[in-house]
Amino acid sequence: MAAAARPGVWITFEGGDGAGKTTQATLLEEWVRAQGRETLRTREPGGTEVGVLVRDIVLYHRGEVAPRAEALLYAADRAQHVATLVRPALARGEVVIQDRYLDSSVAYQGAGRVLDAGEIRDLSLWATEGALPDLTVLLDLDPAAARERLDADDKPFDRLEAEEADFHARVRESFLGLAAAEPERFLVLDAARPAADLAAAVQARLAALL
Ligand code: TYD
């Protein structure tokens, strides 16, 4: 479904672990509701019942998960999510506010696991019949600063968060490259800025789409 052909608006948040995506998604949902629009707040992996099962494997399975298996699991979660939740909400005219989408697969499975970035993107586009968001906010943060935030959080690390610094540096560079390649879809923000400033910047960009 091309962006122009659907009544809803779809916004995704991307960035490394600890960049503040959840905080910004929450602030944006409050603002969108105050504009009188219905919202769907969701995430990948895990936005659907099937997705919750997939999330459990990709984040918490204790044994080895081969990189291509991991890529397919995220793609399966995405296929189910777009078909059963996101597309219907967009067709109803809702504003879909989503934590992570296919750019995460390109960054984590492509750059992080060192699979071919183009193949990973194509896999997600096949899974979703080519669905792309209207706006993607990249919350960019130095991985060392992100790690400090995660350490302060006291939550046990999942399989991806537990990867070494080099992995997270590759993920960050990949996100920045994706944003540079599609400037009309992406808004890149320095996630070290105060949350209220970031929220205002997101609102200003989204206002034109509502
Ligand atoms: P997230 O839900 O942001 O984690 P948390 O619950 O800790 O906030 O994302 C879970 C992890 O999955 C995160 O480390 C990034 C990773 N991920 C991928 O590797 N590929 C993907 O396609 C997606 C959507 C997430």
Query: Would you identify the CATH H-level superfamily?
Result: P-loop containing nucleotide triphosphate hydrolases
Share in β-strands = 5-15%
Distance between the termini: 18 Å
Proportion of helical residues? 40-55%
Low-confidence stretches: none
According to CATH, the fold-level topology is Rossmann fold
Class by alpha and beta content: alpha/beta
Instruction: Quickly count the helices.
Output: 8
What is the domain tally? 1
- List the bound ligands: thymidine-5'-diphosphate
Which assembly state applies to the chains in this document?
single chain
- CATH architecture designation: 3-Layer(aba) Sandwich
Radius of gyration: 16 Å
Order of helices and strands: EHEHHEHHEHHEH
Total beta strands? 5
CATH class: Alpha Beta
- The shape, in one word, is globular
Q: What features would you describe in this structure?
A:
- The protein is of the alpha/beta class and 210 residues long.
- It has one domain: P-loop containing nucleotide triphosphate hydrolases (Rossmann fold), CATH 3.40.50.300.
- It contains 8 helices and 5 strands, in the order βαβααβααβααβα.
- Bound molecules: thymidine-5'-diphosphate.
- The site of thymidine-5'-diphosphate (TYD) has 15 residues, from helix 4.
What's this entry about, in short?
The protein is of the alpha/beta class and 210 residues long. It has one domain: P-loop containing nucleotide triphosphate hydrolases (Rossmann fold, 3-Layer(aba) Sandwich), CATH 3.40.50. The chain is built from 8 helices and 5 strands.
